[in-house]
UniProtKB/TrEMBL annotation:
Residues that span the membrane, as ranges: 7-24, 44-66, 87-109, 115-134, 155-185
Membrane topology (UniProt): Multi-pass membrane protein
Coiled coil segments of this chain: none
Catalytic activity: K(+)(in) = K(+)(out)
InterPro entries for this protein: TMEM175-like
GO molecular function: potassium channel activity; proton channel activity
PANTHER family: ENDOSOMAL/LYSOSOMAL POTASSIUM CHANNEL TMEM175, ENDOSOMAL_LYSOSOMAL PROTON CHANNEL TMEM175
Gene Ontology, cellular component aspect: membrane
Similarity comment: Belongs to the TMEM175 family.
Keywords: Ion channel, Ion transport, Membrane, Potassium, Potassium channel, Potassium transport, Transmembrane, Transmembrane helix, Transport
Name of the protein in its database record: DUF1211 domain-containing protein
Provenance organism: Runella slithyformis (strain ATCC 29530 / DSM 19594 / LMG 11500 / NCIMB 11436 / LSU 4)
Broad class of the protein's primary localization: membrane
């Protein structure tokens, strides 16, 4: 069985690679040798959706990394099942660059928002399972109703954003932005 520290180190490495892969999609557009101001502005404006999708995904991954660190800081030791729940979470997180790139290239395409919502929902589900195992069956940490409720709400909203994308991508965007904002609120406002 892996030690708790090995699980954290591996997780940190995977998360660092995820962020690195996402940033590779950010490229300054090529311009002709003699470009006009209008061409420059058009080219720079063209990278705004990519930068917005990257920023949103970076914030989501950062929140997951911080929550992962907070969770493992409280866990006294690992179990073999904990390793696999963590691997499930990391698998979901490793998929995030794919819908990020799709959303960046086609921000108003319902299928792009749907895929983004499904992958983030799948990843949030992985985190919910990991925390539920640590709090429940394994009794590695004490039960925290507020955190568990936040995890379930976030997971449900991400999964709901997938079909909502076909009603309005703006509804999905509101969920994609709203969930990270929720995690920035002080605990007293989340009760």
């Amino acid at each position: 069985m892996l030690s708790k520290n090995r699980i954290e180190a591996f997780s940190d490495g995977v998360i660092a690679i995820i962020i690195t892969i996402m940033v590779f999609d950010l490229k300054i557009p090529e311009l002709a040798e003699h470009f006009t101001d209008a061409e420059l502005h058009k080219a720079l404006w063209g990278i705004v959706p990519k930068l917005a999708a990257y920023t949103l995904s970076f914030i989501v991954v950062a929140i997951m990394w911080l929550n992962h660190h907070s969770l493992f800081d409280k866990i006294p030791h690992s179990t073999s099942k904990l390793v696999w729940y963590n691997a499930f979470l990391l698998f979901g997180m490793s998929l995030i660059p794919l819908p990020t790139a799709f959303l960046a290239s086609h921000p108003f395409l319902p299928e792009a928002s749907m895929l983004y919502g499904l992958v983030l929902g799948f990843t949030a589900l992985g985190f919910t399972f990991l925390r539920a195992y640590a709090q429940g069956k394994a009794k590695l940490i004490s039960y925290n109703q507020l955190v568990q409720r936040s995890n379930i709400i976030g997971t449900s909203l991400y999964l709901l954003s997938a079909p909502l994308a076909f009603v309005s991508v703006y509804l999905s965007f509101a969920i994609f932005i709203g969930i990270p904002l929720w995690y920035f609120l002080p605990d007293k406002f989340q009760k």
